[in-house]
Specification:
Mean pLDDT: 90
Subcellular location: Cell outer membrane
Protein name: Iron complex outermembrane receptor protein
Number of strands: 51
Low-confidence stretches: 1-35
Family: Belongs to the TonB-dependent receptor family.
Keywords: Cell outer membrane, Membrane, Receptor, TonB box, Transmembrane, Transmembrane beta strand, Transport
GO cellular component, one term: cell outer membrane
Distance between the termini: 70 Å
Strand content: over 45%
């Protein structure tokens, strides 16, 4: 036993000794490393020496990290005296600092927007601001226009030179966005091309404003040409918020806003109308001169007040983001409720966004997946409400003693409809669901060589429900009329491209090559209108209960419910070359193919080239120490416009042209309604751009100046053709040309920066000259295009604008007002120079145009200790507005059946021409608006877990300086009929907002 025991013991000893030795090998180095731990502490501040809480401080190359407390103080144990510390915080440039044996390390972070190495997103890549050789404007989240924002494009209003954005107070109306002037004749084809997180051609309304980190606007042809046939109107690149390394970020942004109409049109009260009529020997019909029930007091109804309200809007955004151990994730929820200041109108939106990313194989492979989803509910009121709140008689009450609305169903004693009844008796609801899913894989194949594959799908579902009840004047005698429409649009996108970057000596080269595939399925749906309901109780919810007379059921055959499939295939390449951080060259080429165009013209090439020279890198500029950066840029690029096209645009189309009897059965007759054009192609825009970027006084003053010459050819329009050669009477063809030339300038400055007070200011200004160069060629002839047929009493066939060669889009053609004759009747100039009281269409004259000569914006931010004050002014100059609304309510001869404006008090009651749309109502559209006044306070909580807590108050549309007499001078500048205020203007609002920004 002893012998055996000794043997086993001897056998086990080496094993035990080995285990002990291995443990020693493990623990001793750990102990040694523990002994080498090095304490570092300090304070992190911003450029104003204000402490920054919540800043991530970590040892470079390790997982050791801490965050600063409420006073910006941190303490971290690093591996040794030679370690490096990485300091990062959202909105500031990251710093990596060597300890060099120090125990105290204080760090000052600089805002990203002040640095030349700001990252700017370009097509299929990114670069630093100092390396840009095109005209690109960047706006970061802190610079966005504030307010009750329904569409993210409104964040840029007044912030980007050359970008004109206009919008009324209607929460459901999309803003008009035009970059560097109108360059097409097709309505709906003037919008820029939107790219969200690298996914091209998606809806801008998919992303919530609070989720946007920055927006880059690509303006010149060299920058946009990489997107080829869809980039002629410019490209807007949206980058959403993503966390930085070792950052966990939770934020809550919210506001509540009260919106009111900013101005009301001056209409007569009931008493004023009665006096005006009495002064002219007139009297109201008894049915139109009502008394308040139970009294003998006359009725004075303020119809604008009856249909308008103070709208309480609210917005909430919760966002959670994190980045740790190669994994990034983010999730946000946004809720916006914007009722609108017209009763019955509203917009409600719920948005969700989620993304997750992972880096694996030593960061050689990056995977990313993101989803956006928004559900928007819109309630609209009939446009008749906006006109009738002005012209409906103020001498009648809203309702009768029996509770019914005061209404003139016969239409012979009152020239209008009760606007309150129009809201109550008509329902128009639209629900829109949008979804975007995007998966991305980026692999580093070799040092400097990466391959990116992006797969995206977008879905849009529209459901529109309209019901005019049995009391609606819009459907008299129909016993209720219902319309239901449902359709889906779908888009699938594949982007596959290589990026290669190589630096050798003073040379740097970047190469891009890729392939793009897109397929759209649009108009997958149907629509139907029916009538004859026994009850209004179910509204539009059960169409089977209708009892329509024969032939009254109508099926929707619009483009929205016409199924089409569109395919786009593209190949693209780009080269960037840089020498000594001094000379820059960029060239790109894109080859696009589209099934929307004629079989002979489905492919097109879009080339671009640009050069840059950073003069401050030259030896002869070294003595100019005040000059931090001076760069000259020159570029030329060609891009296209294919918006608004589908595969049926260039094809022979058949449609209903009437009905006929066959064997006693009434059938629809079908015939050709559109000629085919195998040569139809996209519009092409060639743009030259010359620019100068500068920064002086250590970046405290910076800016740029750009000149551009933008020439668009192959404009698409319907031209009259002979039926001896064609089946139909018109042909869609490429013929016309449009020119836009302009200058843009922007200056950013920090006039004062101290420990407790900072003033930052930014000014941008732009001038554009637009001209329709031609509308005809050797094959097609077109003298002009009459547009803006506004209608109105006796004017249904008249036009107020024309597209004319040599004139800008938006040129007014009006009668020239000469004053009153001896009888007080308005007179006008005839074409031969004589005077008449009965003008004809032959007497229209060019009277000005709606295009502004100058647009500008001026933003100021003042920071004093924890307070921040923002004042933002913007405006336009040199444009005209046609106040057709004032003309329509200037009808003294109708004052017994409709209300008139205070302007009419100066008119003769016998002036039968007072309402005619002439240059008498063409007004100066220039204005200066204090768009935003905001005061905020950042609270120092002393809690390291709360990185930011800011409360603020904000007023939008504070005041407007203008000579325009209408409701508001911000009139839509999009389409072919810009600058017209025409009886359906939804009033501009003034909003008062209280908000909170909190991050943890």
């Amino acid at each position: 036993m002893n012998r055996k025991y000794v043997s086993i013991y001897l056998l086990r000893c080496p094993v035990k000794l080995l285990i002990v030795f291995q443990l020693w090998l493990c623990f001793v180095p750990m102990a040694l490393r523990a002994q080498e731990k090095y304490d570092v502490h300090g304070k992190v501040t911003d450029e104003k020496n204000t402490p920054l809480p919540g800043v991530s401080v970590s040892e470079q190359g390790s997982k050791t990290g801490v965050v600063t407390d409420g006073e910006g103080v941190y303490r971290i144990n690093v591996s040794g005296k030679g370690a490096q510390v990485r300091v990062s915080f959202m909105g500031y440039n990251t710093k990596v600092l060597s300890i060099n044996g120090e125990h105290v390390l204080n760090v000052s972070l600089q805002p990203q927007s002040k640095q030349l190495n700001d990252v700017v997103i370009t097509g299929y890549g990114k670069t630093s601001k100092k390396n840009i050789v095109g005209a690109i404007s960047s706006v970061n989240a802190g610079e966005f226009t504030q307010g009750v924002i329904g569409s993210p494009s409104m964040l840029l209003q007044g912030k980007v030179p050359g970008l004109t954005i206009t919008k009324s107070g209607n929460p459901n109306q999309a803003p008009s966005v035009i970059l560097r002037g109108p360059s097409t004749l097709r309505s709906g084809a003037q919008e820029p091309f939107y790219v969200i997180d690298g996914v091209p051609g998606v809806s801008i309304d998919l992303v919530a404003p609070d989720d946007i980190a920055s927006i880059d606007v690509l303006k010149d042809g060299a920058s946009t040409a990489i997107y080829g046939a869809r980039a002629a109107n410019g490209v807007i690149m949206v980058t959403t918020r993503r966390p930085k390394t070792d950052q966990l970020y939770l934020s809550y942004n919210a506001y509540v806003g009260a919106e009111q109409v900013s101005k009301r049109l001056g209409m007569l009260t009931g008493d004023e109308l009665r006096k005006y009529l009495a002064d002219n020997g007139q009297v109201l019909a008894p049915a139109n001169d009502q008394k308040i029930p139970g009294t003998q007091q006359p009725v004075n109804t303020d119809w604008q007040k009856e249909v308008q309200r103070t709208a309480i809007s609210q917005n909430h955004n919760i966002s959670l983001m994190g980045n740790s151990k190669g994994t990034t994730y983010g999730f946000s929820v946004n809720y916006l409720d914007n009722p609108g200041i017209i009763k019955g109108s509203s917009m409600n939106r719920l948005g969700l966004r989620a993304n997750v990313g992972q880096r694996v194989f030593d960061d050689r492979l990056r995977l990313d997946f993101s989803v956006f989803n928004t559900t928007t509910t819109q309630n609209n009121v009939p446009t008749d409400v906006l006109y009738n709140m002005l012209n409906y008689l103020p001498t009648v009450s809203v309702t009768q003693p029996d509770g019914s609305f005061t209404e003139d169903y016969a239409g012979n004693i009152r020239g209008g409809s009760n606007p309150v009844a129009l809201i109550a008796n008509n329902t128009d609801k639209t629900k829109i669901n949008r979804m975007l899913a995007n998966g991305l894989a980026e692999v580093t194949i070799l040092p400097g060589l990466t391959y990116t594959l992006s797969l995206a799908t977008q879905r849009e579902q529209y459901n529109q429900d309209i019901y005019y009840n049995s009391l609606s004047v819009l459907a008299k005698g129909n016993n209720g009329r219902a319309t239901r429409k449902a359709y889906t649009n779908a888009r699938n996108i594949i982007e596959s491209y290589f990026n290669y970057s190589k630096t050798f000596g003073k040379h740097n080269i970047k190469l891009l090559g890729g392939y793009s595939w897109q397929e759209d399925h649009n108009g997958d749906g149907f629509g139907v209108t029916t009538q004859g309901f026994v009850s209004d109780a179910l509204s539009y919810n059960n169409l089977s209960l209708s009892n329509p007379p024969f032939g009254t059921v109508v099926f929707d055959n619009s483009a929205q419910t016409t199924l089409t499939t569109l395919r786009l295939i593209s190949y693209y390449a780009r080269v960037n070359y840089q020498y000594a951080d001094k000379y820059y060259f960029q060239a790109s080429l894109r080859n696009d193919g589209s099934s929307a165009f004629g079989k002979n013209s489905r492919w097109g090439y879009f080339p671009a080239a640009s050069i840059g020279w950073r003069m401050t890198q030259e030896n002869f500029m070294k003595s100019a120490r005040f000059l931090d950066d001076l760069k000259l840029r020159v570029s030329y690029g060609v891009s296209g416009n294919s918006f608004g096209f589908d595969p049926l645009t260039a094809q022979l189309q058949y449609g209903p042209v009437g009905r006929y009897y066959d064997n006693g059965v009434l059938l629809n007759s079908i015939a050709p309604v559109q000629n085919p054009n195998p040569n139809l192609k996209w519009e092409r825009t060639g743009m030259f751009n010359g620019g100068l970027d500068f920064a002086i006084l250590k970046g405290r003053i910076s800016g740029s100046v750009d000149y551009y010459d933008k020439q668009t050819s192959d404009l698409i329009w319907q031209y009259p053709v002979s039926t001896t050669q064609f089946i139909a009477t018109t042909l869609i063809a490429n013929v016309g040309k449009i020119s836009n030339k302009g200058i843009e300038a922007v200056i950013n400055a920090e006039p004062f920066s101290g420990k407790n007070f900072t003033w930052r200011t930014s000014v941008n200004v732009a001038h554009n000259t637009n001209k329709v160069s031609s509308l005809a060629n050797d094959q097609f002839t077109l003298k002009d295009i009459p547009v803006a047929i506004l209608g109105g009493k006796g004017q249904s066939g008249n036009w107020s604008q024309k597209v004319i060669e040599g004139q800008p889009v938006g040129t007014f053609t009006l009668w020239h007002y000469l004053g009153k004759d001896k009888d007080g009747i308005s007179t006008y100039q005839k074409a031969d120079g004589t005077t008449t009281t009965s003008p004809s269409s032959a007497d229209f004259m060019i009277a000005g145009n709606a295009q502004p000569k100058i647009t500008y914006g001026w933003n100021n931010t003042f920071i004093w200790k924890g307070f921040d004050l923002t004042l933002f002014l913007r405006g336009v100059s040199g444009n005209k507005i046609l106040n057709a609304t004032l003309a329509a309510v200037n009808t003294p001869t109708d004052a017994k059946v409709t209300n008139v404006s205070k302007f009419t008090l100066q008119e003769s009651y016998n002036d039968k021409n007072s309402y005619l749309v002439s240059d008498r109502f063409l007004e100066n559209g220039s204005y200066l608006r204090l768009e935003n006044l905001a005061l905020g306070y950042t609270i120092k909580t002393g809690n390291a877990r709360i990185s930011k807590l800011r409360v603020y108050g904000n007023v939008n549309n504070v005041f407007t300086i203008t000579k325009y007499t209408g409701i508001d001078p911000e009139i839509d500048l999009g389409g072919l009929t810009p600058g017209i205020d025409v009886r359906n203007y939804y009033p501009k609002t003034r909003s008062f907002i209280l908000g909170l920004n909190a991050s943890f």
